Amino acid sequence: MDRRTWLIIVAIIVVLTFGFGFRLYMMGRDISAENGGQTSSSGVATIGGPFDLVDQNGKARTEQDFRGEYMLVYFGYTYCPDVCPTELQAMSNAMDILPADIAKKVQPIFISVDPERDTVAAMADYVPHFYPRLLGLTGTLEQTTAAAKAYRVYYSKAFEEGEPKDSDTYLVDHSSFIYFMGPNGAYIRHFNYGETPEKIAEGIEKVVSNQG
After folding, report:
1. Is 84 annotated as a binding residue?
2. C-alpha to C-alpha distance for 191 and 95, rounded to whole angstroms
3. If pLDDT is split at 50, 70 and 90, which confidence band does 158 have?
4. Whole-angstrom Cα distance, residue 96 to residue 94?
5. Which of 104, 110, 91, 101 is nearest to 198 (CA)?
6. How far is CA 134 from CA 7, 51, 63, 142, in A?
7. What are phi and psi of 30, to 5 degrees?
8. Which residues does the record give as Cu cation binding sites (predicted)?
9. Is 80 annotated as a binding residue?
């Protein structure tokens, strides 16, 4: 076998191997999408982790406070004109739909990505407009940044063209997922933006009923 023929054979093997691997990767993505964002038995999503924040009542809160409870977590900000109120209302309505024995096992949480404006007082004024047990968490910029990073949340200040960077009228572009976390703090699944309260409640009830 001459060198040219050998190189062609090697090239074909490389191409076939890459193609097979890529196909497996895409199949994994398709399965994840079909499962509505739930984790699979083959791996654990790296979403969630420690946080050190303060609630709307001025009480220090860490992830350890919620061990033994399910958490329904949304990241946003009080100045958000539409997306955040919509998603928080969907969360609240889902909590209302759930049977009482299941709802009491779930703690809804709203974490700020705009701590410079979302003070404890601002959160205390904001969260009562939604679910009675909704906790609003804020903190220093470093603390909220760490929490957002743990949950893989994207966010960035957005200024109008020509608006000074020290203006306090900015918006915040951010990802919009509702995270459902287990009693041990582990990620279970997420709900995408626009998911109906009925679907959110259905997803929560299915997990809690099966796991207890």
Report:
1. yes
2. 14
3. confident
4. 5
5. 91
6. 64, 17, 15, 23
7. -65, -40
8. 80, 84, 174
9. yes
Query: Which among 94, 127, 129 is positioned nearest to 109, based on CA atoms?
Result: 127
Quick one: how far is CA 75 from the chain centroid? 7
Q: From residue 69, how far is each of 53, 144, 181 by CA, in Å?
A: 18, 21, 9
Neighbours of 36 (CB within 10 A): 13
Written as six digits, the tokens of 197 are 């309260």
Question: Residue 2 has which token pair?
Answer: 């001459």
> Which residue type occupies 126?
Y
β-strands 70-76, 106-112: how paired?
parallel
Tally of CB atoms within 10 A around 103: 20
Q: Would you say residue 8 has pLDDT above 80?
A: no
Q: Which residues pair with 108 in a beta bridge?
A: 72
**Distance between CA atoms of 33 and 36, rounded to whole angstroms?**
5
Cα–Cα distance measured from residue 197 to residue 210, given in angstroms and rounded to the nearest whole number? 20
Phi–psi pair at 91, nearest 5 degrees: -60, -50
Report if pTM > 0.85.
Answer: no
pLDDT (tens digit, 9 = 90+) per residue, 20-63? 333 333 333 333 443 344 443 345 558 999 999 999 999 999 99
Tokens 């999503």 belong to residue: 45
